[in-house]
Design a protein that fits this description.
S-adenosyl-L-methionine, four-stranded mixed sheet, Thiopurine S-methyltransferase, Rossmann fold, methyltransferase, Thiopurine_S-MeTrfase, cytoplasm
Length: 214
């Protein structure tokens, strides 16, 4: 029997609201960086900027942003965001990477413009389930005509792990983006590792979707 095929064909958990009341505060996210509870973090970055693109990101942890520039061996500057008290933007010396250190829900106040492409990895799965609609509205408001939105989510048994990362089923993606986007699942990948056993789960599948304008 092909175990991988069997795993990737597992039906989604029927109760899509099992984690709906789960909430993490911004302070708890920042503490994850301080205490190094960052299994979601990838040391090897995605090479978008190296391909000639201008890249904009948002992260609540200043430590996380500083570590990104250090790991990528990039010099940078920082400046306050006048529209968002207490927030900062970190810019690479070449000017092709700008990382905003703020609450994502405050980001539209910074007038950052609109985007042709969105790469959503570790974002929707980190948003408190009760905030997903507001998050989706913001992300779609930042897109240009003809946009392409690449979205990675995780599938597992949410009765065994409270999240984050949170379980995001197909139905939720259609609910959040389906009125505006054509949604295509590009691939499903078994990403379960030994470390995930500590979550109490026995499978973990990453699903990659391409969302395009209707």
């Amino acid at each position: 029997m092909d175990d991988t095929r069997t795993l990737l064909d597992i039906k989604e958990y029927p109760d899509t609201e099992v984690q709906k009341d789960r909430v993490l505060t911004l302070e708890e996210w920042q503490e994850k960086w301080v205490s190094r509870k960052i299994r979601f973090h990838q040391e090897q970055g995605h090479r978008f900027a190296d391909l000639g693109h201008s890249v904009v990101g948002v992260e609540i942890s200043e430590l996380g942003i500083q570590e990104f520039f250090t790991e990528q061996n990039l010099s940078y500057s920082e400046e306050p965001i006048m529209e968002i008290p207490g927030a900062k933007v970190f810019k690479s010396s070449k000017g092709n990477i700008s990382l905003y250190c703020c609450n994502l829900f405050d980001l539209p106040r910074a007038n950052i413009g609109k985007f042709d492409r969105i790469w959503d990895r570790g974002a929707l799965v980190a948003i408190n389930p009760g905030d997903r609609e507001r998050y989706a509205d913001i992300m779609l408001s930042l897109t240009r005509k003809g946009f392409r939105y690449l979205l990675a989510v995780l599938s597992y048994d949410p009765t065994k792990h409270a999240g984050p990362p949170f379980y995001v089923p197909d139905a939720e993606i259609k609910k959040l983006l389906g009125s505006v986007c054509n949604i295509h699942c590009l691939e499903k990948t078994d990403v379960f590792e030994e470390q995930h056993k500590s979550w109490g789960i026995d499978y973990l599948v990453e699903k990659l979707y391409l969302c395009t304008e209707k």
